[in-house]
Structures are given as C-alpha cells and as structure tokens.
Q: What sequence folds into this?
C-alpha cells in the first residue's frame, strides 16, 4: 500500500503545488550511497566501506511560468532571502523506494532564469530547472 498523500514536495512546511512541476521531468534519487573507500582484493573481490548517511536528490523542470508564478516559486524555495546564503531548506519528499515520506535539510544550487517572451508588462519564463540536494 502506498503512503502517498497527494503531494511530492513540502518545502519549509509549504506543499509545493504541482503546477510548478513538469511531472515528466521529476526525478528522485533517494538514499544515495556514498563510499568512504572502495578497492579490490588481490582476488578481484570488491571491498567497500559505505557511509551511514545516504543523502537524497530531487530534480525537476517547471513548465513555462509567468512572472507572478516565478515569484511564488522562488519564495517557496527560499532562494530570494539574503539571510539564507546557504540556500538551505527543510524538505519533505515522497520517497519512491520506500513509498513513504522522508525529510531532511537540503540546499538549492544556483537557479537560472531565461525569459521566453515579453507581452506588455508580463514576462513568461522558459522552464526552470530546480534541484534539491540533501546536506
């Protein structure tokens, strides 16, 4: 039975509306393994030491967005705050491999904004790539 509760991401307590996610681009890489060391024995057997912490990564593109929607997305992500220089956020996400929600502290790498069109006082932006990488 799935533990999905109708949303993919909650950022700093706010559910990210799916209107900001082009669903076919949503990519979750949960619980990534990090090797402290990996080597082969003389007999060719892999010997590895894996870290206890298994960070997750979420990536997606938005659809084309109008300026007001971009402002709302930026606010939810918390990347417009000068006091948040590390661009960190508490993220709760649906984890496909466990079918449950997981939470952690993530950072948002630099986000690029490209304009698609200008219509009077209205800007339309090209799809924006958003990444959330667990600390």
A:
């Amino acid at each position: 039975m799935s533990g999905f509760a109708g949303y993919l991401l909650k950022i700093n307590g706010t559910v990210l509306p799916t209107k900001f996610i082009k669903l076919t681009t949503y990519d979750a890489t949960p619980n990534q393994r990090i090797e402290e060391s990996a080597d082969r024995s003389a007999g060719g057997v892999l010997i590895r030491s894996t870290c206890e912490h298994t960070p997750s990564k979420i990536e997606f593109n938005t659809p084309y967005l109008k300026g007001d929607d971009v402002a709302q997305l930026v606010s939810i992500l918390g990347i417009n705050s000068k006091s948040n220089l590390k661009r960190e956020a508490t993220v709760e996400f649906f984890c496909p491999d466990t079918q449950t929600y997981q939470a952690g502290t993530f950072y948002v790498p630099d986000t690029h904004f490209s304009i698609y069109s200008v219509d009077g006082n209205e800007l339309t932006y090209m799809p924006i790539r958003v990444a959330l990488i667990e600390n």
User: Anything to note?
Assistant: The CA atoms of residues 30 and 59 lie 11 Å apart.
